[in-house]
Amino acid sequence: MSGLLLIALGANSAIATAQTAPAPPPNNDIVVQGQRARPSNWREAETQHVIVLSNGREQEVTQIAHNLERLYFLLSVLLNRTAQTDDTVKLRVTLIGDAAEFQAMDLRNLRWQQGPFNSAFDIRRYYDPRQDGAVLATTRIDQRVVLQRGVAVVDALQGVQLGGRGDPGAPPGTAGTGAIGGQAGLFGLQSSADLIRPVNEESVPLTAEGMIYAGFAQHYLTTFFPAAYPRWYLDGFGQLFSTLVVRGDTMMEYGRAPAGTTAVLHRFGNFRLADVLSGAYLTQSPDKTRWTPVHAWMLTHFLFFSPTRSGQFRSYLKAIANGTPASDAAAVFGDPDVLARELRSYFFAKKPFERMTYPADRADGPIVRRLSLGEAAFVKGRLELGSRVEVGGPQRDAWLRRLRDQAAMFPGDEGAQVLLAEAECRSGHASECRAAADRALALSPTGSAALTWRGVAMAQAATALTGTARTEMLRQARATIGKANRADTEAPGPLIAYYRSFADAGDPAPAIAVDGLTKALTAVPNAPGTRLALGSELASRGVLPVARSTLMPVAKGGYDSPERARAQAVLEGLAGR
Questions:
Q1: Residue 285: inside a domain, yes or no?
Q2: Which of 224, 281, 294, 465 is the most exposed place for a label (fewest CB within 10 A)?
């Protein structure tokens, strides 16, 4: 796919690193340590650019990690990044059980969305570009999308038709009452592990690997080339690489049509192309739209490979990245009916795909290890943290109580105490946060993350003080965060915490704090929280072009986030300046 299309941000400002009596361990530490050291069924596979965790087979987690490293190389070649250094935090990918187990975690995507696709394509995936490093999670079990309801096997053998709504044109999600376990008549996403399938059912596979590759491709694009992309393009970009095939150790194929493409396109038919290019489809109900991941793949594939449309596509993306409304940017394609006819012809044509050789010297496998019971106990909690603390309310409080109980069961696990400290601080519980951080520091006195959260807790406590007491507490908090930074100069957490100790206290941030925030954004370039903080700070200092380019992916990009409205407000304040 030569000449792959993308928009890159302008250069960031200069980068610099911000600088500035633990409690005794519990009496039962020896006993718990023994339990903690026992291996779990969770494994971690780490490569140069990714960390994959799974409670599945070792071969599975090894293959996924290795293929993601290959995909990283492939994207770097296509996007001309092979000679550039990578100072970003590694993406953490977690594969969790089957669809039911994954759904039970109730992970809410606050900073990443897809579609909206037709409700049959209820894809289970979670992505969060957190300030300390992005996380991606999905089920590790293949699923299938049911396009056409069938008749339950047992009923077919008895010559009995499925009860309830049997009309293929009935609303999606309605099931017949005669289905075994309520499953056989479902229209939508089901696990490939279902043993009993209806007769005459039409379905297409949705592989766990494909969902991971698509999510990784989107992460790569928004990390190394952050810009205000339309969502349909982000979906389509991911789908282009969802069909990655690795043959042997050195051959890769990408750009192939997803399995079931013809069936999906025939089933759902055409979509209003003008609505997609203008973004109007985003407000349509998933129950009514004919837009699917396969449509996103085909439109993106067509515009990538079209010799006559690729230039227009580049202009369209650049205009949106610069803040032009999508409906106006779409005018570059000319008559939408002509474009639609070309796309329909493309559907029936033989579609190109490409192969690339993976260098043999890069074929080394990942480093794999078994997680201890203590480490494994908090794999899910680490993922849940993002949505629980931000949603707030009774759900957060109940989750936090469970996390406290779990952490109490593993007082000798540093990671458990650090996770609890973060949850407490982000929930506004300064004293509880400091206590958990102190327990972690008792186990590892120089732990950067524990020092960071101890400093954050002190800065939060300072807000309740006045006069010299407040000033002294803030000084101590910043000194503690400075120790965290010196313990791990590459970690974004201390840099962000140091800046926030000024911003949250209403104090002017010194230049070194702003430079540290810039470095934190370099480590996680697609973190909306860091972008909002840095963009707002630069705007207040009159560095307007860089402020605009920093805020645009948050304010005008394809994904909504809690930071979006504030980023838009800052941009509006810059109008005319």
A1: yes
A2: 465
